[in-house]
Structures are given as structure tokens and as C-alpha cells.
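Reopening this one. Same input as before:
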Amino acid sequence: MTIWLKQGAAGSTRRAEKDMGSPILRSMGLLAAAASLAMLPAAACGMEAPPAPPTFTNPLLTSGPDPWITQVDGVYYYTHTLGNRLMLWRTDDIADLAKAEKRVVWTPPTRGPNAHSIWAPELHRLDGKWYLYYSATASGFKDDQHRAVFVLENAGADPMQGEWVDKGRVNTARAGIDGTVFEHGGKRYFAYSPYIGSDSGLAIAEMRNPWTLTGPESVIAMPDKSWEKQGGRQILEGPEFLLGPKGDLFLTYSASACWSDDYSLGLLHAPARSDVLDPKVWTKTAQPVFKSANGVYATGHNGFFTSPDGKENWIIYHANPGPGMKCTSARAPHIQRFGWSEAGWPQFGEPVASDTPLPVPSRGR
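Same output, byte for byte:
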């Protein structure tokens, strides 16, 4: 083997005939060959370049107010407000939600307490069955005092199939919307947004079963910050539970009127092992934890899910693509990953600008 070595400031060279028996020259030759191979494209070496990690961009759909995702065994179930029916989407690739299988699973009766304004559906797997919680308004009424949370039950393994049985109205103490459930400390709790006078607050109660509350109902928060009073109404709505890595319990909520560009997410915190029915254990952040930014407006009505491998935490929320678009079907579903502070608090950051490529939720190996 022949090695060309550069010498001197002028870069002159000398030719050295390499004795293959010399350890020094042998090492130099192997290093030179390895360096040459490293500079070649993978295809030139007969190897395939690793594929680029899959990405997606927000929004997932062009329309989707009050979005919700449940991820079970790598399968995503999605739903959002349609107003006059409940529909589920199913896919193993959340980035391709627009092409997901979908099915209308329930339509409301023409008359009755749950006939109109079918809003904010949430799909939960509880006690081996599927439950759909949704808000509805009684026929013949349009006022808030005739709104309530209702629940459907499906005993089958597949929520896209089988019969959905109407379990009726959740027996909340007040009229209200946006019901959700969570298990904590060996008990199951229900939270919703009750109407209290002209305001909307947040209340929580223990559950006897997935459609029945038991014991006292506690109002744990009311709108008392300026950023909770935008758009001409004082509103807290859309509560969602989130368990922290150190056992603390968090509750996100949407603040102000949904038709305001200042619609944003607030956060309540209860220390680990506290009595969550005691309003005194809950503290509220002084400012929103997630709000309009980067060309994404009126961020709110969120939910949470994990990646299929369980290693990543994700938030889903709706937002408008521009200012002044109010509370319409222009609101579309966005998702992004979030992390935790050293103290164990969620760190949501800012909404990622639309059309920015993001890695899809991790499936592990």
C-alpha cells in the first residue's frame, strides 16, 4: 500500500513505500482507509441511510372544537363537538387523523333533556367498559340552566361497535357542562363546570359508579383573575385532571369566553395525598399556563394522553388560525408534547406554530 504524506509549509509530499509488516504503518493505513470510508455516502458503502423520524404538523383536522383523545394499546380514539351527534375516529397513526376510520355512535332523541347542543364528548375506559360523557341541552331551551352532563355506556371491547346505552344525566347539584372523570387515591372523582349565578366555576364530587355521584359536591374555583373574565363573561370550564410525577394533582381549565382571543388555560394544584374535595387544598396559578402565541389563537378546551410507549406526555387542545374568529367550527385540534419541571409541575410552553414539523408520539422499540 502506498501512503502520500504532506510535508512542510508549502505542502510538498514524499512517497513512502509501506512495509505491511510494520505495526505503525499498518495502523496508519487502516486509519486512512476508515477515514475514506466514513466520508462516503451510506449508499456508496452498500448501506441504507436510516429513515428520517416521522413528523406531523398542526392542526390535525381543519375543524374540531373541544377535541379529545384516548390512547389504548397504541390505538388512538378521537372525538370532538359536532353539535347534533357523537362520532368516534380510530387510528394507530394520530398524524393521519384525517384518514382515520370514523363512525357515528349515537344521535340524540328529538325531544328530552339531552336533545340539543351535544358538546364536549370524552371517551373513557372504566371498570372494563367504555363511557362517553357529553354535555347537552333540553329540547325547547337555549339557556344555560337547562344544560347538563350525560353519559353513555358500551360493554363491548370495541367502542366503534356494539350498543351504546343511555345512562342518563349525571346527578350534579347544578346545571353545567364539560364533565370529566379521574381516579386518585383509590377513589374516582367527577369534575365539571357548574353555572353559579352569571358565572361558571369548577366543581368536584366523588363517584359511586361511572354515572352517579355520591356525597358532597365541592366548588373548588371561581373566576377571580382578570384573564378569566375576557369576552364579556366570567368563565372557568373544561376541567381536566393531570397526575404529576411526584403525586401532586393538577387540574387544567379553560378561562374566559370561548369567543375571546384571550381564551386560555389556567392551572389548579393540590398537594399529594390531600383531600381533593376540600377547596382549601387547591391553589391557582397567577397567570395562564397556556395562551395564544405564534399565530395560534384562543387556545383552550384541552385533554391529555400518553404516547403508545407510555414515555411521553401530550396535550390536545383547540385553537383558531387567526384573531377574531370567535367560537365557531374554525377551531381545530392541535397536539404537542409537554414535560415537567424539577418540582414536578407541568411545563406546557407555548402553542407550536401551525405547519411546524413535530415528531409523532413515540412507539418505542
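So the earlier flakiness isn't reproducible anymore. For the record, Helices lie at 23-39.
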